[in-house]
Every structure is written in structure tokens, then in C-alpha cells.
From TrEMBL:
Belongs to the class-III pyridoxal-phosphate-dependent aminotransferase family. LysJ subfamily. GO terms for biological process: L-arginine biosynthetic process; lysine biosynthetic process via aminoadipic acid. The modification N6-(pyridoxal phosphate)lysine is found at residue 257. Homodimer. It is an enzyme of class 2 (transferase). One of its GO terms (cellular component) is cytoplasm. Pathway: Amino-acid biosynthesis; L-lysine biosynthesis via AAA pathway; L-lysine from L-alpha-aminoadipate (Thermus route): step 4/5. Its cofactor is pyridoxal 5'-phosphate. It is found in: Cytoplasm. This is [LysW]-aminoadipate semialdehyde transaminase. Substrate binds at residues 144, 285. It comes from Deinococcus marmoris.
Amino acid sequence: MTATPESKTHSKWLDAELKYDSGVYNKHEVVMVRGLGATVWDENGRSYIDCVAGYGVANIGHSHPDVVKAIQEQAGKLMIMPQSVPNDKRAEFLQELVGILPAGLDRVFLCNSGTEAMEAAKKFAITGTGRQRFVSMKRGFSGRSLGALALTWEPKYREPFGDAVDSKNVDFVTYGNVEELRAAVTDQTAAVILEPVQGEGGVRPGTMEFMQEARRITKEKGALLIMDEIQTGFCRTGKMFATEHFGVTPDGMTLAKAMAGGVPIGAFVMTGAVADRMPGGGHGTTFGGNPLSMAAGLAAIRAMKREGMAEQAREKGAYFMDRLRAIDSAKIREVRGMGLMIGVELKEKSAPYITALEHDEGVMALQATPLVVRFLPPITITREQIDQVVDAFERVLNGVNPRAERQAQLAAQAEEKQSE
């Protein structure tokens, strides 16, 4: 599946991106130009199995034909229309989205990203309750805009911006600790923000007890329970939404990433009681709900339902984790996850192994905390590809470098020819 060229072609595109980019990203030394399903190709034609999927965006696979067709057709009709002006494609999308949401979540604020969805969630929580304090989770990640950043635990994200990040109204509790949560939620708490599975925090699924107690405690205190489904939503964990695993219905959910098959999109979905307390004009967005993203989202959600992607994620995720747990390596501490949201915690830094996977094996993976290798493949990944990923991971853990071996073999063959 993964061709391995013996020499690296100099890239003018990589040079240009490194020259003009802002510098906030640590760039890979590769330029990707094409994707299909769970495979992406670089400019030299080398293929990679993509277990990054745009940070969990490409759940239905790269360039899903239904989404491509929907974008092409809508682009020829109408691409932008503000939400103050009703649009047929937006109305159709909203109807489709509400049809798959947990009961009672039937109002939607449309935007362009997960961070924007979290910003909206904070504002709706404040107007919905008349309160201004929040409870968020240690190891939680809610985004990097100033408002969302206040809810994000990792100090390295917050500290460079000092007091501009208003964390004084946020109480952080240990994820899974019911007693800490009970002590933190008061009659001043607007909302508790929870990820059903902590992604950036190391791929840590919540427990049934913690999720159900969070629902009970927030109801008792008059606070909202807001589930952050930005990474876990849209079949990733084996359900349409990870919240469904716990039998809990929140007051709101933040959504984004996989909702439109690769097109920027976001939403905060909520109950009518929460929506109705936001004053008219209290929040807004220029591009949110544009017809192009609506067409893509409509096609993506229908593909998820038609192709049984929640069930696929459940079955393939179980197979993937079983295979990872079967790896014979003392370097692995734990394999954990839910559906196709998988983390392998190592006993040493994960970065060198992630780099080796990409450079030597043609497998792209993510870090989640310094010790965890995170696998977020498209749900369309095949069992054959899963086997290739696991075999590659085992090789890099064991220090086997097939590219180096191949290069040594070619060098030996060349030397042998010269001596003939």
C-alpha cells in the first residue's frame, strides 16, 4: 500500500509554506496533494495510511464522492447567504441534523469550527442561566480562541496570553472524580463542560458513573451540562454521538470536525429553553450556515447513516484495539479508546515513534500527551489497512526500519554490479 521512494524530491511547495506560514505549526517534511478514503498521497506519489484524518475530520474518508458531488452542485447555485436570510439547503441541513440529535436538542447555532461552537456555548450558557462561572476538566481541551482557551486545561496553551485568558471564572476538576465535581458545581455555575472521551488529554473515555452523576448534579444545581462532541461526534466512537454510550441527554453539545466531510463547519445545538434566552443579535457569524457547507454536511450525514458508519467504527475499533493489545512490546503501558478513537500509552515519549511511522512506514498518526500515540483513521479504513498500521507500529516499536534495510540492500546490489 505504501510505496517508499529511495530519494526525497526537493519541494518548492514545502519551501513556500515554510517561508510564508505564521510559524505556529510544527510542519511535517511532506506535501500532501491528494486523498481518497483512508489513503493520502504526497507530491512524489508516495501513499500513506492516514490515521490523523485532519484531526478527526475525515470520518467518512477523504473526498467521499457524495460530498464532492454535493459541493460541486451547490457551488454552481449559491455559495454564501447570511443566516438572516433563509436558504433551502440550510433548512434541509437543519432538519437532517436535528433528526439525529438526542431528544430535546432541537435548536442550532451554526458556525465554522469547534472553537467557534465552544464560544457560542459559553455565551448561550451565560444567558440561559444568568450565571457566569464554568466547570471544566483537567486534561480537557476546548479550543484556542481566548474564550474557549479559558476552558482548556493545559497551561502551555493559556500562559503566553496572561490575564487576557479569563480563567478566573473556571473551576477545573479531575476528569472522572465525582466528589470533586460535586464540590465544584454551585448555584453560581452556568455550565459543566465535558468531553465524553478526552482526546488531547490522552484518549480517555469517561465512565458511566461520572457522566450520569454529572447530569444529576447539574440538574440539581440548575447548571447546564454541555457535552463537547467536536471530536467524538458523527460515528467516531461507534455511536452517532459518544453521549449515547452513557444514556445521558445534555442541555447542549458542541459539534464540528466530521459534520461536513472535510468542509469547515461548526454548531452549538441546544434545547429550546437555552436558545430562547439569548437576546436577538446576541451572537452571530458571517460564514456560518453558508449553503456550501450545508450541502456538504447534508451529504456527509446521509452517507454516515446509509453506510452504517457508527457500526463500522464500533466493529473496526474493537478489531484495531485487539490487534494493538496483541503487540508483544514492553514499551506499551495501555491501549484504550472507544470505536475508532484509539490511544496507545507508552512508557516513553511517543514522538519518535510517530515520526518513524510516517517517515519509515507511510502511516500518519497523532500525539495525545507526550506519551500517547493517537489513531483517528477515517471510518472507511479497511481491516487490511488496520493490519498494515499495526504491523508498522510493531516494527517501529522494535526498532525495525524497512526503508533503511531496503536502501542498504539496494546499495549492496549496486556495489555488487560495479564489481562485476
